Amino acid sequence: MKTLQYCAFLASTLVLASCASQPVSHQGAAAMFSQPQSSEHRGQDDLLSAGLGLAGLQVMLPPAFADAEHPTSAELRKRALWSNWRGIADLAPGGGYGSLYGSLESVPGREFSAFATLPGAKQPHRVLLQLPDQFDAHKRCVLVAPSSGSRGVYGAIAVAGAWGLPRGCAVVYTDKGTGSDYYDLDAGLGFDANGQVAGEGALAFKPEPASGSGVAYKHAHSLDNPEADWGKHVKQAAEFALSTLNTQLPQQAPFTFENTRVIAVGISNGGGAVLRAAEDETPWLDAVVAGEPNILASGHGARSLYDYGTEAALLMPCALPLLGIPAAPGLELKCAELAKRGVLAGDTLQAQQQDALAKLHATGWTDAALRAGAISVGFDLWRAVTVGYASAYGRYTHSAHPCGYRYAAMNPDFSVRAATAAERAAWWSDASGIPPGNGVNIIDAQPITDMGLTGLQCLRALWTQDSADAQRVKKGIEETRSQLPRAGLPVVVVHGTDDGLVPQAFSSLPYVTMAKAAGRDVRYWQVRHAQHFDAFLGLPHMAAAYLPLLPYVYEALSRVDAYLDQQGALPSDATINTVPRMGQPLTAEHLAIPNG
Question: Which of 83, 222, 268, 508 is catalytic?
C-alpha cells in the first residue's frame, strides 16, 4: 500500500512516470550528514540503558566520571541515558515501570550518529540510530523520535527506545536543533560529536559571534528558529536511518521509504515535531503517535506556548493559593507590585488573587491545568521557557536578548562567574537543554529587589504589544504554526486532561478539531488525571493525584503497529476515566486503558 501511495505521489508531481521499484533518493547525503560515529553496546552495556537497568536508573546520583573534568565518551553516554530516562519516565517503586508497562530489558546492538544539516541552516542537529542485533529483517521497522523539551539526542529514549528496541525495530533520534550542546563563551569551548568538550574542529553548536562572556545554547542562540523546522528534522533523521541501514545491512538492502515501516513518535515538543512531520505530502510516514504535543494549530482556542507561558509566569503565582496550592514566599509583595504596575486589580491580597485567577479563567485555563501548572511555578519553568524561546523565535544572538537576559554560572552571592571545567564537562550528558540548571543560570538585568517582574513584563509585551522586537518574535512564532496532516495518514494523539504545561485546550484539542474538520484520520485519547511530567510522579503528592502518560503512548504504538500489520484497528476516540492511585502501587485498573 505504501509503495502505491509513493508512486501515486511521484506520478502526480510528474517526477517519474513509473516507480514500482524506485528507491528513495538520498541526494546530497555526504553534505547532509557529517562527523559520523559508531559504537557497539553488548555484554555489560546495551542500547536501552547502557547496562544500568531499572535498578541502576533508580539510583539517585548519576554514574560517576573517573575524571570529572575529562569524562570518556562511554561515560558521557551512560550518564546521558541515566539523565534522560529519569527526566521523562516514572521509575519510582510502585509506579509500574518495567512490570505493568514499559521495558528495560537489555538490548544489545550498535549505535550510529552524525551531525545533520538542513539546507540553509546555520547549525546542525544531532541524529542517532540504534540498531539492535535482533533487528527484525522481515518487518523492517524504524521508529523516528525527536527529543522532548529541549533535550539532547537521547531525549526520547524512554518514549521510542523502550517500545521499539525490544520488538526488533531500529530507532532513530534527533535533537531537532535543540539539545545540550552548550558553548562556553569565556573559554571558547563547545562539544564535539562524542559529547566531549572541544575548542577546535567540527562542533555541534558554535554561536555567532563565538565571543563574549557566559554561556550560549543551541535552542535559543542558533539563529535558526529550530521549531519552525522540526518536521524537517524528523524526516532528515529518518533519511539517516535508511542510509545507515543500507550500509550496515547490505544483504537486506535496499531500505527505502517504500519498503520500510516508518512510525514517528514523540511527546511534548517531540509530539509537536512528529505532527509537523505529518504535514509532508510525500508518503514516507506510515503512522504518527503524538503524546501531549506542543502544537500551534489554527482555530478556536489555539494558543502558542509563548503566549500562555508569559501569561502564566506573571499571573499564576498569585492565582494558585485560591485553588489550595500553598503560597510561595514573598507572594504578598509580588501581587501588590503587580497591582501597582496595573497588571492586577485590587487593593488587598485576596482581591489581587481573585483577579489573577479570573484573568486566567477568561483566557481558557482550567482549574485542573492550573493546579498541575503549580509545579512549573515552583521550578521557575515558565520563565526558563519563555526567556529562551524569545531568543529562538526572534533569532537573537546570545548578547542581544530583547529583555536583557543572558546566561552564565553564578556564585552564591548571585555574582556572575566563569564555569568550571567539571561543570562544563557534564553539560552535554546532564543538561535538559534549557537553563537554569547544571550550573548555568538565567542572568536578569534587573536587581533582585525587582522580583523578576520587569523582565517578565517585557517578555509578555513581546506577545501583547507591537514593537519591532514584538513583531520579530511573533513572526518567529507564526513560522511554527501547524498545517493539516497528510490525507490518509493514521495519527493518534494522546493528552492528559490535567496537563499544566501544555494544556490540551490550547494545543492538541484545537489541532484535532482542525484535522477532523478536514477529514483527516486523527484519533484522540484524552486521559483523565494525567499531567505533563511522568518523572515528577516520584513525588508522593504527585503520585497520589496523577497517573503516567507513557503507558497510553506505548499502547497507541502497539495498536498502530497491529493496524499496519492488518491485525487490529486503530484506537477509537476516548476520554479515559482513570482512577487515581492515592498512594497505592499502580495497577491496570488505575490506568483503565480502553479495549477499543
Answer: 268
**Before 436, cis peptide (omega within 30)?**
yes
| Cβ–Cβ < 8 Å for 195, 428 | yes
Query: Element (H or E) spanning 526, and its range?
Result: strand 522-527
Separation CA 202–CA 189 (nearest Å): 12
Q: Is 39 marked active-site?
A: no
Condensed to tens digits (0 to 9), the pLDDT of residues 214-271 reads 999 999 999 999 999 999 999 999 999 999 999 999 999 999 999 999 999 999 999 9
Grid cell listed for 477? 512564532
- Over residues 258-298, the pLDDT tens digits come to 999 999 999 999 999 999 999 999 999 999 999 999 999 99
CA angle, corner 411, sides to 409 and 413, nearest 5?
A: 140
Cell numbers for 285, please give them. 510516514
581 burial class (0-12, 13-18, 19+ CB within 10 angstroms)? buried
Angle, helices 230-248 vs 269-277, to 10°: value is 80
Q: Which three cell numbers stand for residue 440?
A: 548555568
| Strands of the 125-132 sheet, one edge to the other | 33-41, 109-116, 125-132, 170-174, 141-146, 261-267, 287-291, 491-496, 522-527, 574-576
Q: What is this structure's pTM?
A: 0.95
Q: Which residue has the cell 512549573?
A: 376
What is the residue type of 31? A
CB atoms within 10 A of CB 61: 6
Q: Which residues contact 566 (CB under 8 A, 6 or more apart)?
A: none
DSSP per-residue codes, 282-351:
STT-SEEEEES-----SSTT---HHHHHHHHHHHHHHHGGGGTPPPPTTHHHHHHHHHHTTSS--SSHHH
CB-based contact 176:234 (threshold 8 Å): yes
Query: b/e string for 275-296 if b means 16 or more Cβ within 10 A?
Result: bbbbebeebbbbbbbbbbbbbb
Residue 396 identity (one-letter amino acid): Y
Q: What share of the chain is helix, strand, coil (3-state, %, to 5)?
A: 40, 15, 45
Computed on alpha carbons and rounded to an integer, the radius of gyration of the chain in Å comes to 23
Cell of 434: 534549557
